Amino acid sequence: MYKMRYFIAVLTFVFFTVNFNICFAKEEFNSWLINFKSVAKEKGISDNTIKIALSDVRYLQKVIDYDRKQPEFFEKTAVYISKRANKAALKKAKKKLRNNYKIFEKVEKEFQVEKELLLALWSIETNFGKYLGKMDIISSLATLSFDKRRSKFFTKELLILLKLMDKKIVSKETLYGSWAGAIGNFQFMPSSIENYAIDYDKSGKIELKQSLHDALASAANYINKIGWKYKSSCFHKVELTKSISKKYINVSAKKIKNYLTIKSWKKKGIVDIQQINDKYKAALIIPDLAVSEGSMNSPAFLVFKNYEKILKWNRSLRFGVTVCTLTNMIVNEI
């Protein structure tokens, strides 16, 4: 009986503490919102857009919860890859390509971005458009702007979104997507829409949800503009036969360092790369070493410069190797 009372008391304490913190956050959010409206006006956003966009904006605690539990940073690499680069994804990719071959071919030729890469990104981002997200984008971005972790980044994205509304490029009723504020088949952030989105089907508006032509061309334009090298390698999975100094190993996606020639990596004990030109340069990544349970036996990869371009799309080592893995799977099947 005592244990039961103690357990109930603890649960009650936790319940009221959590709810108090959420209520306090909402109060602070409302103060932040007043200030943000002034900032938006100073940045040239019209009063009408500010009113329409922010009249019913609200603090979303679940957005903060999602932000703190992103699988890109906590799932082990092998698990992360297996959930996304698998036979089911490959089967769907082949079907999507068969049904839309002409547009994939046209986009690949024009933008010099492989259709297999576009299929991999489409699969991983939204399961080929099946999961576009139902979150209120404005409230999501406002919540993340208010939050301290990446306030500067998300405030910039929210301001860009309001500018896009001002220019009639996007409308409020279409602004539903991921918890992080991304929209459409390829999950474009507002800055990506501003910089890379294209009205490829010449309908008079950019439609990243309903128009496959716009979505594919916009994604290809993005990849092309950030420096993707057509028909070049992305990565090579390797086995470490002996210990390699940690100073050569990348565990963070912020900046890939220590590019060495393949010949140099062979000398350091990486033996399953005989088919790669000795003069090529690559960097070594072991994503799982970023977490305590990771080890030198965790999945390791030699990555080339194209891999860094994928990180500009999503700055996660696990995301990058998964995209490259699924891309290669599709290449080998079509």
UniProtKB/TrEMBL annotation:
Its GO biological process terms?
Answer: peptidoglycan catabolic process
State the UniProt keywords alphabetically.
Coiled coil
UniProt-recorded Gene Ontology molecular function terms: peptidoglycan lytic transglycosylase activity
Tell me one Pfam family matched here. SLT_2
- Note whether Membrane occurs among the keywords: no
- SUPFAM superfamilies in UniProt: Lysozyme-like
Q: Which InterPro entries match?
A: Lysozyme-like_dom_sf (IPR023346), MltB-like (IPR043426), MltB_2 (IPR011970), SLT_2 (IPR031304)
Coiled-coil boundaries: 80-110
Domain Transglycosylase SLT as annotated: residue spans: 29-326
Membrane-spanning residues: none
PANTHER family reported for this sequence: LYTIC MUREIN TRANSGLYCOSYLASE, MEMBRANE-BOUND LYTIC MUREIN TRANSGLYCOSYLASE B
**Name of the protein:** Transglycosylase SLT domain-containing protein
Q: What is the organism lineage in this UniProt record?
A: unclassified sequences, metagenomes, ecological metagenomes
